[in-house]
Amino acid sequence: MLEDKNPQRTPLSELGEFKLINHLTQHFKLEQDSSIKGVGDDAAVLRFKDTNVVVSTDMLVEGVHFDLSYMPLKHLGYKAIVVNLSDIYAMNAKATQVTVSIAVSNRFPVEALEELYDGISTAAKLYNVDVVGGDTTSSTSGLIISVTAIGTVDNEKVVLRSGAQPNDLLVVTGDIGGAYMGLQVLEREKEVFKVNPGNQPDLSMYTYIIERQLKPEARKDVIELLEQLEVKPTCMIDISDGLSSEIIHLCKQSEVGIDLYENKIPLDTQVISTCEEFNIDSTTIALNGGEDYELLMTIAQRDFDKIKGNPNLTVIGYVTEKEKGMHLVTRADERIPIIAKGWNALKNQP
Amino acid sequence: MLEDKNPQRTPLSELGEFKLINHLTQHFKLEQDSSIKGVGDDAAVLRFKDTNVVVSTDMLVEGVHFDLSYMPLKHLGYKAIVVNLSDIYAMNAKATQVTVSIAVSNRFPVEALEELYDGISTAAKLYNVDVVGGDTTSSTSGLIISVTAIGTVDNEKVVLRSGAQPNDLLVVTGDIGGAYMGLQVLEREKEVFKVNPGNQPDLSMYTYIIERQLKPEARKDVIELLEQLEVKPTCMIDISDGLSSEIIHLCKQSEVGIDLYENKIPLDTQVISTCEEFNIDSTTIALNGGEDYELLMTIAQRDFDKIKGNPNLTVIGYVTEKEKGMHLVTRADERIPIIAKGWNALKNQP
Prior knowledge:
Chain A has helices at residues 17-25, 73-89, 110-126, 178-195, 207-214, 220-229, 243-254, 269-278, 282-288, 304-307; strands at residues 35-37, 44-48, 51-61, 94-104, 130-138, 143-153, 169-173, 235-238, 257-261, 295-299, 313-320, 326-329, 335-337. By secondary structure, the first copy, chain A, is α+β, with helices and mostly antiparallel strands. In chain A, helix 2 packs parallel to helix 3, helix 4 crosses helix 5 and helix 4 (178-195) packs across helix 8. The radius of gyration of chain A is 21 Å and the shape is globular. Chains A, B: This is Thiamine-monophosphate kinase.
């Protein structure tokens, strides 16, 4: 009925997720006085009178971001909230509200949605945010969850991705790579289960990394810690797609380079042992495995004494001049360029 | 791998969309000082210092809310913004920003998404809102668009669904039923096209109602008009699901009854003629056809002189005591109870 007026066809996979969103949104100008920061950071920053409101939104799609064969719905609801709050914290802001929209096929009974909302409610309580709105609709297949998180931050406290300066320290919270290795274990057990449904797997060796995958936490505690320590990072981002991908974002937006030290990257012992078991290099996992929801930040050298020895904060590298580029400095003291291999939603599509 | 621990199964269709969202969100308490109004109105109201921020979110799902065989992507992008802004205006607020998340299968080329974003951009410019964030991800099937709209409103201007008082006038903007009849024409032409793809239909008789379906507008102009007229409605809602459904929302939340006069309902001549052609009762369409995105409001009697004769505003009934219930007063002066037959996303599912 409607003819195709545009016979040109560029496959989505040619651009990938980040280039695609850049490509689509590059012409959007900010016209409102209240729009301080639009697309391109963890969250948008709006300023109404004296208040900075930060807004972030994320969509989780069944078969792309989660697999209900090993992801309990309660955990999924919890995770959907956490991944959005993580973006708010990455602005050095306080999360206050969320809205939740779901599209669901009617293969789900009401009780399944109750479980999902139980997880949403549990996360909202723990992180002290209110669920203030949402939309429920049907989908022709699968479950889609879209969450928008809202927070506030004082003017002088906003931390963007663009503030890193040469000589700043590169700091990461917690440890990384766990969520990805937890996913590998769950995927393996799913295959085992297909062959032998009666098998009761012993997953006690993997409890930490499985929890990292199924029930990640956002680093609200770190934002509070930074305030106590009186440290304002010069830039910050949350690690959703993998360390290398986030480093590239920071360097591009701050127009700096980075030296990342392989021997400083914090890895849990379960990540190391599971990498050995799977015969995968743990540094590769730390660089490219996503979904840890830790925070990656840069801080001024003068703040080093304030964070020194804190178990939540690990210095993993240094900011350099842009011309020096982005490198991993290996244990053998080789310098390897950091390239994006992070999880790419559009290429991984079945 | 994970056992079903809850063998109870209540089909989603048993509850329907509104009951479902109520059921799922009824236990959410508002704990944040900044959360003024949560789930249950057109938008949430948040108060940060002296600023009221209103937030609304909606999800559009291919095969449920739109059919790409007759909905051009540019129009779809435009409509996705408009339906969300409509919720902001229904709070008597000024819309300022939107975030847009899309999930898309890779059957769509980049050029298709460009068209979609072209529509988004066109609407954003026309309504003077900024696109400040979003997420792009893949879907295993179809296109899903989730938009969150943000606005501001002065404290004394917020209009909720709960403020109607007996003797208030029931007022509707524009005319209604057009979007639904436009959809009927488009569905018919789609069937004709299947049989005879060479057919070039003459749709000139239906331009207004087809535009109402494919390119609806939100009543930003009415919010500005009300301000000029110095009229603050006692309650307001936008008409997305049909007049009867919205009247029921207003009456429940305001704890009032309503008498709606059949002979006052504003219908465009194309709605009347197309209803005759399709042999459908036009009042039924006005009551139950959705997607007009007009505003339904109640205003105090003392404001009647201010709106009298304005072509944008039609008085269609009166607010009564709750005990009197909700009725359509027909041309034959019969009183027929108003019941919800509005578009129900979860029951219409294929």
